[in-house]
Design brief:
The chain is mostly beta strands. The chain is built from 2 helices and 50 strands. This is Planctomycete extracellular domain protein.
């Protein structure tokens, strides 16, 4: 509103010279706010509230408003965030104010927010009547589209379908879900990729995604490598180039409605740049599960994947692209995590790493259906550490891999041409254990290990018995080193190892070494072949047990 008042005119006898009459305009604070506002257009189409913003920073807060009459369960209040310059206008451009309330005679089931014009937007969805304990409920779809360094925060909310899209290919978008329930079970597909009832994506500018204490019943898909067009036939528009993506999912149940039809329930695709993905349960009594298969695919860059205390019912497929100029990728599984099930068929952990010095650590955890690791045919130094030693003061739980009761388990490590390092300690391996040496100077150390099955190291095609070949056939895989010459100066150290079904080791070409320490039970039959090259050495000087049913061949040097 504009207010006007006249200047008082002085008597003519007191004026030194003629003056003109002047008017002074005085604006209210509200009027100034309208003039400087960032406008959000509100339109209602059927049962959907449509919000569209301008290129400025649009900042809003939404909640289900049960205090309103007639249809409290379907009424929503949308308000400009505190201290923001956001104002609402209708489709005709008329100013509504800093608060919009849906009409009480219209049932709202969907909210579509399109802030894709740019700006550092902020969208916050809070609990019922702005409560910190009671959830707002939207029994349809919540769509939030941003473009710019935007923040989306959803808490104490139950919704049927959720789509958050940060479309900027330069700025980082932030999404936070806290105590959110997504109850829909719709699954869409494009090629080999699934898109679930909770979908979060970014256009390549990088993203920070935090999900805490939530229940995503229909699964979760995250596409940080490009956007998805859901308007017609689903098309994923690839854009892998971007900044680092950071994903942290804590105490969150995923895939409850998909458990009867075993399938992927969590798919994460990160673009170029160093990505960090963490799945964790920080409370031992928290009942959250990932109730199906997990797929994590990272493009080029130094990527980190961490599972802490997590329980994954299905299989997990982790693929890391080439590392950066300093190092490769890192995978850490610890704190009593469980990957796969010992009662359900399948559920194996499959890891594929590209170029770079990659690292895999598994300690104090269980992988009932086994693991297959392929570190690629590169010349880098990859490190795999299985198990944790512990001590008297702070003992460590044994790591257990394999043992599925319905299907055979395999524990296979296929290494490339680099200098690979494999260390297994305080661990039970249940099934066929197959360790590849391939090219490079590789090192295998096993200490305090029980192999409930057959132990196969190197290319053993010429020495292993038929039952080992049958195991490979039944599992549908080949030996990690089948057809390989085993180049490189390899070293195998066994200390306090017990094998139940037999031990078969062939170190191939070049100068290799086997060290046998303390007590070793090779099983009912064992064949160890050094390769018959100059420098091949067998060291039994620290062996305290008697070797029975063991055939030794191809060692030029014996240290007894």
């Amino acid at each position: 509103m504009k207010l006007f008042k006249r200047q008082r005119r002085e008597p003519a006898s007191t004026r030194s010279k003629p003056t003109r009459r002047r008017r002074m305009r005085v604006e209210t604070l509200e009027n100034r706010r309208v003039l400087a506002a960032n406008f959000v257009t509100v339109d209602i189409t059927g049962d959907t509230v449509m919000l569209s913003g301008d290129t400025n920073a649009n900042e809003i807060e939404i909640w289900q408003d049960s205090r309103r009459a007639f249809s409290p369960s379907e009424s929503f209040t949308i308000k400009a965030a505190e201290n923001s310059e956001t104002m609402f206008v209708d489709s005709a451009g008329l100013v509504i104010g800093d608060t919009f309330q849906s009409p009480v005679n219209v049932a709202i089931h969907n909210i579509n927010i399109d802030f894709g014009q740019g700006g550092a937007d902020s969208v916050e969805f809070v609990g019922l009547d702005q409560s910190d304990t009671d959830a707002s409920t939207l029994d349809g779809m919540l769509t939030i589209i941003t473009n710019g360094e935007a923040e989306v925060s959803l808490s104490d909310l139950e919704v049927e379908t959720l789509l958050v899209s940060h479309q900027d290919d330069d700025d980082i978008g932030t999404t936070t879900l806290t105590d959110v329930v997504v109850s829909g079970d719709d699954v869409s597909m494009a090629g080999t990729r699934n898109f679930f009832s909770t979908h979060i994506e970014s256009g390549g500018g990088g993203s920070v995604i935090t999900i805490l204490d939530s229940n995503l019943k229909g699964g979760l898909s995250i596409s940080n490598d490009g956007l998805v067009d859901f308007s017609g036939p689903i098309v994923h528009m690839m854009n892998p180039t971007g900044a680092a993506d950071v994903i942290k999912i804590t105490n969150t149940d995923i895939g409850e409605l998909l458990v009867l039809d075993p399938q992927n329930v969590l798919e994460i695709y990160n673009g170029d740049g160093g990505s960090r993905t963490t799945l964790e349960r920080d409370n031992a009594t928290d009942p959250s599960r990932i109730r199906g298969n997990v797929v994590i695919t990272n493009e080029a860059g130094f990527d980190e994947v961490s599972f802490s205390g997590i329980n994954i019912w299905g299989s997990s497929d982790i693929e890391n692209g080439a590392g950066d100029f300093l190092h490769g990728s890192s995978i850490m599984i610890f704190n009593e995590s469980i990957i796969g099930s010992d009662l359900l068929e399948g559920g194996r952990l499959n890891v594929v790493n590209g170029d770079g010095d990659d690292r895999l650590t598994i300690e104090e955890s269980r992988l009932p259906s086994g693991i297959i690791v392929n570190n690629g045919n590169d010349h880098d130094t990859n490190t795999i550490i299985i198990g944790k030693a512990g001590d008297v003061a702070l003992p460590a739980e044994r790591t257990i891999i394999g043992g599925n009761t319905l299907a055979g388990s395999v524990i296979q490590f296929a290494n490339g041409d680099g200098n690979e390092r494999l260390s297994i300690i305080n661990t039970d391996l249940r099934g066929l254990v197959d360790i590849g040496l391939s090219g490079g100077d590789d090192s295998v150390n096993m200490s305090d290990v029980i192999v409930d099955g057959a132990l196969n190291i190197g290319n053993t095609e010429n020495i292993r018995p038929a039952f080992v070949d049958d195991l490979f056939t039944d599992l549908g895989i080949a030996g990690a080193d089948d057809g390989d010459d085993g180049l490189g100066n390899d070293r195998v150290t066994l200390e306090d190892v017990m094998v139940t079904a037999g031990t078969f080791i062939d170190l191939g070409d070049d100068q290799d070494r086997v060290d046998l320490i303390d007590t070793i039970d090779f099983g009912p039959r064992a064949i160890i072949n050094g390769g018959d090259d100059s420098g091949d050495t067998l060291d039994r000087s620290e062996l305290s047990s008697v070797m029975t049913n063991v055939a030794l061949d191809g060692f030029r040097n014996h240290i007894n």
